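DM from R.C. (forwarded with permission)

"hey, sorry to bug you on a friday — could you get me a structure for this? deadline for the figure draft is monday and I only need the backbone to look sensible"
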Amino acid sequence: MAGSDKPGRFIFGRYSFENRPVILAPMEDITDPPFRHLCKELGADWVYTEFISADGLVRDAVKSIKKLDISPGERPVSIQIFGANIEAMVGAAVLAEQASPDFIDINFGCPVRKVASKGAGSGIMNDVPKMVDMTRRIVDAVGTPVTVKTRLGYDQQNKHIVDIAERLQDCGIAALAIHGRTRCQMYRGTADWSLIGEVKNNPRMHIPIIGNGDIVDGPSARQAIDSYGVDGIMVGRACIGNPWIFSEVKHFLKYGDPPAPPTLKEKLDVCRRHLDMSVTWKGEKTGLFEMRRHYGNYFKGLPNFKPYRMQLVTAPSLEEVNRVLQEVEEAFTGETR
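My reply, with the result:
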């Protein structure tokens, strides 16, 4: 059922939310277990894994298998798979189900060239019959609720999401998330929510519709809900180095004003935890490298922060990163650990 079974309840598969869920979008090298843990702790109602290659899963590739690891504290959690081969996608969905996710999500939205050029991610939007056939086959193969994340279309001349949404719903998916851009837009320009609204307000649609694109704070989430009536809000790039955005959005939706921002001490504490968990999860080399994209947002707004940021993104060891973070704490708070 789309929307609610009674006022204030929003139903997604076996999950019922008192309010519209605020959801962590799937992002490669971002939504790993450490970051999902922090986002869940700081207000995310529902989280997605990184993209997982169907070909990698069926070949038993170590990197793909490792991405299946989820913990009880993350729930509800979606495992997202991508690929161009239908048989591989069906096999990957069956393997993903063994990890006991709450949802299996099909990635029809990734726009990056190395994925889309092979007919996977949003590249499959050039072949809607295949997109529908793949979805139906996956839904039939697993007992776990299946969802889809996609875009408005492949390009400006082929924004067929209203028709595509109906056809995917007919396959038996439990919910549909729509990013308000085409594949060819990548992440450029402004997300077009008008077509997301058309899908949501289509009288034929009865599954929940999740809106994604340019949700950067409470006011943008409020506008999306009030203008287009979506059943859930998905936050993507705006959460990088800013896991507090989920509690901020929920506070704004409830009270109409933003909460007090996190203090620098709170930012440092969460950043250090994120860093430690990332290194533990992926090893020091990879963990340090993937943390680099977060530092700018963790400390956004600090005056004259650029020299510290440059040190953080070039530091060769965990010890060196912690030394720089200690310098930041001393320089901006006057405190020492």
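R.C.: lifesaver. The chain has two domains: 10-255, 264-333.
me: no worries. The longest strand covers residues 46-53.
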